[in-house]
Design brief:
With 266 residues, the protein is α/β, with parallel strands linked by helices. The protein has two domains: 168 residues, Rossmann fold; 75 residues, no CATH class. Helices cover 37% and strands 23% of the residues. It contains ten helices and ten strands. The longest helix is centred in the middle third of the chain and has 14 residues. The chain starts with a helix and ends in an 11-residue tail after the last helix.
């Protein structure tokens, strides 16, 4: 029992937190004093109407934007001023709305480079990649887990949009992040491709040591995946809780779903 308790305690030490996080663009406050703590073993969906600040908040956490005020803590360490590569090294992994791959390299080579980066393995003329059976096995396992095992020799640029998104998830898995960040993962996908990516994210949820953040505007996706929803409106955090309660709250019905007070959703 002691080992189980220790394992649980180790999981719970992971934390990601924003404290009064704010960014201004001229006179416009796009994210306004947002304080929120994210827990391992929980998928949090970040939602809100267009212009609410949800993607800007995401960009502040992952490092694409620098905060005007406030702080971001990962495992209690202040990462607010760290560059994107240093945040990645610290354990933040992000998949973008637009795929961020090496287009002319094969699927396997893309994953291999991510594994090498995470493992601290550099090119060695005396010990080429193909001799590292341990790393090859890891690359193969990741590709199989995202249903790309049969496409390992295909150039990334030749993949369908859906398969490119799957490859993005594979790259994140290869980097072994503490925090998975997904920005509208089903954007631009065909109806047939959406379930595959949602299943991938659902499987990542099974690892209770990870934090998963999801920016999404499709409420059916949010309902199927989220353990918790936070809602941003005009740059402020206006709701935070379990999906059923948040979706039913008057401020979300009006601000996000466009339903006037007093009218019920279907």
């Amino acid at each position: 029992m002691k080992n189980v308790a220790l394992h649980h305690e180790l999981h719970m030490t992971l934390s990601l937190e924003t404290q009064d996080l704010t960014i201004r663009f001229g006179g416009h406050v796009a994210v306004n004093g947002v304080s929120c703590r994210f827990r391992p073993g929980e998928l949090t969906a970040i939602v809100g109407p267009n212009g609410a600040g949800k993607t800007t908040y995401f960009n502040l956490i992952s490092g694409q934007l620098r905060a005007s005020a406030g702080s971001i803590l990962l495992d209690g360490q202040d990462i607010t001023r760290l560059s994107v590569p240093l945040r990645t090294r610290a354990g933040l992994g992000r998949a973008f709305q637009l795929t961020n791959l090496f287009p002319n390299l094969s699927v396997e080579e893309n994953v291999r480079l991510a594994i090498q980066s995470a493992s601290g393995v550099h090119y060695d003329m005396l010990r080429p990649w193909m001799t590292r059976r341990d790393l090859i096995a890891r690359a193969d396992a990741i590709l199989d887990s995202v249903a790309l095992g049969g496409r390992r020799d295909v150039a990334a640029t030749a993949l369908s949009h859906g398969d490119q998104r799957k490859l993005e998830v594979a790259l994140m898995m290869a980097l072994e992040p503490k925090v998975f960040m997904f920005d509208e993962p089903t954007a631009g996908m065909s109806v047939d491709e959406v379930p595959v990516v949602l299943d991938l994210i659902a499987r990542l949820k099974q690892d209770s040591s990870k934090i998963i953040l999801l920016v999404e505007h499709k409420m059916d996706v949010v309902r199927s995946l989220a353990d918790r929803i936070i809602v941003l409106h005009n740059g402020r955090l206006v709701a935070d809780g379990n999906p059923a309660e948040v979706i039913a709250s008057p401020i979300v019905q009006e601000a996000y779903l466009g339903i006037a007070p007093g009218k019920r959703t279907a």
